[in-house]
Automatic annotation (TrEMBL):
<dbReference type="InterPro" id="IPR019402">
    <property type="entry name" value="CWH43_N"/>
</dbReference>
<dbReference type="InterPro" id="IPR039545">
    <property type="entry name" value="PGAP2"/>
</dbReference>
<keyword id="KW-0812">Transmembrane</keyword>
<feature type="transmembrane region" description="Helical">
    <location>
        <begin position="22"/>
        <end position="44"/>
    </location>
</feature>
<dbReference type="GO" id="GO:0000139">
    <property type="term" value="C:Golgi membrane"/>
</dbReference>
<feature type="transmembrane region" description="Helical">
    <location>
        <begin position="98"/>
        <end position="115"/>
    </location>
</feature>
<feature type="transmembrane region" description="Helical">
    <location>
        <begin position="127"/>
        <end position="148"/>
    </location>
</feature>
<dbReference type="GO" id="GO:0006506">
    <property type="term" value="P:GPI anchor biosynthetic process"/>
</dbReference>
<feature type="domain" description="CWH43-like N-terminal">
    <location>
        <begin position="11"/>
        <end position="152"/>
    </location>
</feature>
<keyword id="KW-1133">Transmembrane helix</keyword>
<protein>
    <submittedName>
        <fullName>Post-GPI attachment to proteins factor 2-like</fullName>
    </submittedName>
</protein>
<feature type="transmembrane region" description="Helical">
    <location>
        <begin position="56"/>
        <end position="78"/>
    </location>
</feature>
<dbReference type="GO" id="GO:0005789">
    <property type="term" value="C:endoplasmic reticulum membrane"/>
</dbReference>
<dbReference type="Pfam" id="PF10277">
    <property type="entry name" value="Frag1"/>
</dbReference>
<keyword id="KW-0472">Membrane</keyword>
Amino acid sequence: VHRSYHLNLINSSSKDQEKARWWLNFAFWLNVVEIGSLCGVTYISNRENYPIHEKLFIIFMISSLLHMLACIKGIRWVAETNNDVQTVQKGLFIKQSLLLLSLVSTVGLVGFFLEHRLLCHDMAFSWFAFCEYVIALANMAFHITVILDFPTEHLVVAKGLKYLTEPSFNNKFD
């Protein structure tokens, strides 16, 4: 949905349209890898199969960070095709801040992991876990910013969508 929405916003007469399309497609495929690896990390515990869990976690981390970067670039290039970067500035600032938080936390995560594994420092694994939680929260927050990308769209989660077509729709839920 995100990719389709932004592809439709691209001004086809702009010289930057190919860059915008490339970044949106790149973000889409990175998101597929991110979700797939996250599912793998979730269902294959480190106690069950540590080597696979570790590799899936690394793939998740890399694809997640690259996905954030690609989304930011894609949205910026779409706005460039319409000479409308001002409209997306707030959302891009939030996304960039969450990417920066994820990058800093990733550096901490790697550092504390190495301290834990190589030096057996006290509390290193606890700090590793803290960084992991910060990354998870930043990742979820980044995905929630999709709300800013669809300012005029509405998401309806409902049972019995036939009510949407009836003139008295607003009265049904009062």
